[in-house]
Write a structure and sequence with these properties.
This protein is mainly alpha-helical. The chain is built from 8 helices and 3 strands, in the order αααααβββααα. Strands 2-1-3 form a 3-stranded antiparallel β-sheet, sandwiched between helices. A hairpin with a 2-residue loop joins strand 1 (about 125-130) and strand 2. It is globular. Bound molecules: fe (iii) ion. Fe (iii) ion binds near residues 31, 162 and 163.
Length: about 200
């Protein structure tokens, strides 16, 4: 199975001014593409190349280059889907109720997620996931993903420097503030309803 870089669900300047077209050129066009290319090279001649889906590769690969590249391909695709031009605001419906029940309020949830995103030491990801029927906020290092812990990811924020250095230099907190203005809550709600 050969993996390809999925199309972005918006144009490269669609997330501006919060995330620039230049960031997308590099983050999507170079970094995400490189993970796809590396994964295909690593899977050639490897039994994991016969897995039916990228999720299966992520779940079955041992720690190492195949896991790192497969998880980075999956995490990035999931990240792009979780953003949308004119996004932000608050979720509606069942997800809104579940967030209030789990965290007390949307503001409290946002505060906890922001703390995980800003506080993650070095490269990684912040996540809202559903684990054992409960909403949890968490962060992972490097290519780490909730897919390997039996959780269902609902939303993620990439906090690798390549996600924000062009637009915000070292100011990760400013980038996370902008992330909230782009969140595709309909995507997160759909993931929640499917889980
Ligand atoms: Fe990234």
């Amino acid at each position: 199975m050969v993996y390809t870089l999925p199309e972005l669900p918006y144009p490269k300047d669609g997330l501006a001014p919060h995330i620039s077209a230049e960031t997308l050129e590099f983050h999507y066009g170079k970094h995400h593409q490189a993970y796809v290319d590396n994964l295909n090279k690593l899977l050639a001649g490897n039994p994991l190349g016969n897995e039916a889906s990228l999720e299966d590769v992520v779940r079955k690969a041992p720690q190492g280059p195949i896991f790192n590249n497969a998880a980075q391909v999956w995490n990035h695709t999931f990240y792009w889907m979780g953003l949308t031009p004119k996004g932000g605001g608050e979720p509606q419906g069942a997800l809104a109720l579940a967030i209030n029940a789990a965290f007390g309020s949307f503001a409290k949830f946002q505060e906890e997620f922001t703390a995980k995103a800003v506080g993650q030491f070095g490269s990684g990801w912040a996540w809202l996931s559903l684990k054992d029927g409960k909403l949890v906020v968490d962060s992972t290092s490097n290519a780490g993903t909730p897919l390997t812990t039996g959780a269902t990811p609902l939303l993620t924020c990439d906090v690798w420097e390549h996600a924000y250095y062009v637009d915000y230099r070292n100011a990760r907190a400013k980038y996370v503030e902008s992330f909230w203005k782009l969140v595709n809550w309909a995507f997160a709600a759909k993931n929640f309803e499917k889980a």
